[in-house]
Amino acid sequence: MSTVIDGKALAAKLRGQIRERAEAFRAERGFEIGLAVVLVGEDPASQVYVRNKIKACEEAGIRSFSYHLPADAAEAEVIALVDELVASDKVHGILVQLPLPRHIDERKVLARIPARKDVDGFCAENVGNLAMNRETIVACTPFGVMKMLEEYGIDPRGKSAVVLGRSNIVGKPMAMLLVNADATVTVCHSKTKNLKEVCAAADILVVAIGRAKFVTADMVKEGAVVIDVGMDRDENGKLCGDVDYENVKDKASYITPVPGGVGPMTITMLLYNTVLAASRS
Ligand code: GUN
Fold this sequence. Notes:
Belongs to the tetrahydrofolate dehydrogenase/cyclohydrolase family. The chain is of the alpha/beta class.
């Protein structure tokens, strides 16, 4: 029998604490913490994510500034907006929802956000600090995973951790956080040989590969901790993760469900990072 890691409950607990900190900030400084969210285009998934982020801000007592530009907005227009937000005293964190439309150079836009307002933890300075195990702003999803491990008393020290996926948003920062927590880390991706065997050797398996039910029971060691970052649709259009949950759950010691696992933690850590950015301002 495995323990189901309840991301929803942990997120609710942390959001309560974040709300208290946001209220204390307002009482001390006389104005609210502000997060700017920039969406360009009509990507349906991005629209849902952005809506959820804005709602979470409201509930946490953080003021949100929401900008929705059309899909054909010029790159210069997006950059001008970001520059304006960088200059604003009311805005402590800036989030540009990704992916941006193809005609816009994502790197150019993100490069305008200074580390102090980069609540996504995407910029080179924040990533570099993470690599060097220094104080920084950490990307929300992997940060949320670490909070889950901590909450459930799972110490990565000395454990074999396998991260499936090498994205800048999840896989790479996840691997760095686990190394910083003294795990022995392997990062797997589409070119990895013997993927099944590598995964099956993991004490902690973090899956962020973006393929529905990709990780099957034979890829999981008995008693492993399985963290599913995926948000996919199965053959019936039902929401599921990258892990074949029904078959893996009895083999794992701890497992995150989809929905209700990592998802609620990602937005929670965005709120957390925004409070952190504001408190440093
Ligand atoms: N698109 C998918 N995930 C994320 C995220 O964590 N931050 C931003 N800005 N865009 C995303």
